[in-house]
Structure formats: C-alpha cells, structure tokens
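Example record

The entry below shows one chain as it appears in the dataset: sequence first, then structure tokens.
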Amino acid sequence: MVEMIIDKLVEGNKRYKWKLMDKKETIELKGKIPKYPVLILTSMDSRIDIHRIFQLNSGDVLVLRNAGNQYSEDMLRSILISIYEYGVKYIIILGHLDCGMKKVNLDELKHNLPIEFLRELGKKSVDLRFSLQRFFRIISDEVINIKNQMDRLKATKVFSNDVKIIGMIYDPASGWVFTEENLNQFPSYEKFMANYRELLHKKQLDHINFLETIETEIVGAELIEPTNLNEVEVKKKIVKSENTDEELNKEIGEKSLLDSKIEQLDLPDLEKYMNIPLKIQTPKIHIPRIRVYIPSVIKPNKRIEK
C-alpha cells in the first residue's frame, strides 16, 4: 500500500514536470515571499486547499496547519518567525464546518493509542481522560473554537497591535468562506447553522453582483461589443438544471423574484445555484436585403448579304 502511494506521488511529480516543460505550469522564484503579508492558520483536513479556495498562487501567503486549526507553542514559534522575519501583518484563523476534531471519541482513541504514551500522559494527572482532552484539544463547536483561538493568540501579547487577528470559517460542502463579520453575528455553531439558509441567500445575491463585474472573463471580451455592455445586466436568466423541478427551471429575472424562489428551496437544492453562469443574450444582427440590378444585353440581328 505504501509503495502504491509513493508511486502515485512520484507519478504526479512527473506530470507536474511535464506541464512545466509544456509551459502549462510555471515556477515563480522571484519576488517577495510571501507576496502578501498574510499567514493562514487552518486545519490539516485535506479538503482545505487554501490556494484553490482563495485562488492564490504558490508563494502568495504563508500557511500553517494542525488538527483543529488551534494555537499552540509550536504554532507560536512559526507565527513569530512569520511576523519578524517575513513581515506578516495579518493572521487568519480559518476553521471549517464538519471538523473532524469534533467527532473524535476519547474512549475509542484511548484504546488505540500506544500504552507507553498513555503511561507518560498519566504521570501528569490522575484523571487520564482529562489529560487526553487537554493534550488533543477535542472541540465541540467550530464557531466557538475559532473565537477561542483568536483570543488565545491575542492574549500572548508577543507582537504589536499592528498585527491583526482575523477569524473565518469555510464550508467544504458549498465552497463558501464566511467572514468574521458573519461569525460575530452568532455565538455558537448551533446558532450559525440555524441561520445558514439566510447566510447562503445573501451569498447568492452577492455572487450575482460579483458576476456582473467579471462579465468579460465569463464570456470573453471579444464576444461583447462596448456599445452593448449595458444590455448585460442582472436580469440574466438562470441556467436550467435537469435535477430541479419545472417551476425552478423557469427563467428568473429580477432579484426580488429570486428572493421569493430561494425561500422555497431546501438547502441541498440551494447549493446548485451558488455558482450560476450568466446567460448572455447576443443582439440580433439585421442584414438589409440587397437588390442587384443586372443590365440586359440586346444583340442586334445580323443580316447576311448575298
């Protein structure tokens, strides 16, 4: 099994090298590292691909990972280096929904751990379960955990107020990142999820406005003439989906109509509309009828003289 995994990684690296040779990939070694003064502390969950989520390039930001995106002494070592060696000014604690650290069962974990480790851990406390909880830092609430890590990092007081600590939460199921403003509205994961439909609704409307700003990227600059750009507005029609019912397949125009439709959707159906491409109506070109006049040629009668 290990050999298969290593072979897959090596093969992937060969494909990467081929893309470099074919100029489908590039390596940027010049410039400041990181490009932006940002450090992201996030989960070790393999679904959390920072560069894909934020559409970043290699070298744009610094990334730290651990179980539960939690502050620790080892994290502090890396954070201090990022601030005083690499000029980081913003530290983002990026948690995520469906966190595996909330699902860990300490009793089951205890039976799977090496006995030598448990003996050493037991020397620090008479309550082994408490020691396990303290060591692994199992969480019960993703939203509260993000806020706790922000508070713990701020409480270290090892860097100036110029360094900003920011909290965000990512939803692996939909691809949306919710900002600290969203987190501050709700004291817990339970409250956050109770208002999740409304949050998705607002994200959807904001996304439609965003798509207007990248119209030329979506359809190509050569397909839209400058004089016709005003015709491409938010009245664009939602693309039909084979998995939705007939009523939702109807074309949706103004945002007010979109609001009423979204209220009728269940959450799984709503996610289908999170990344809707705009349907551009190309203007009809009228070609006037052209009349062609062909002159008639009259040949004179030739008389044959005897």
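Notes for this example: Confidence is low (pLDDT under 50) at residues 226-283. The chain has three domains: 31-99+140-186, 100-138, 211-273.
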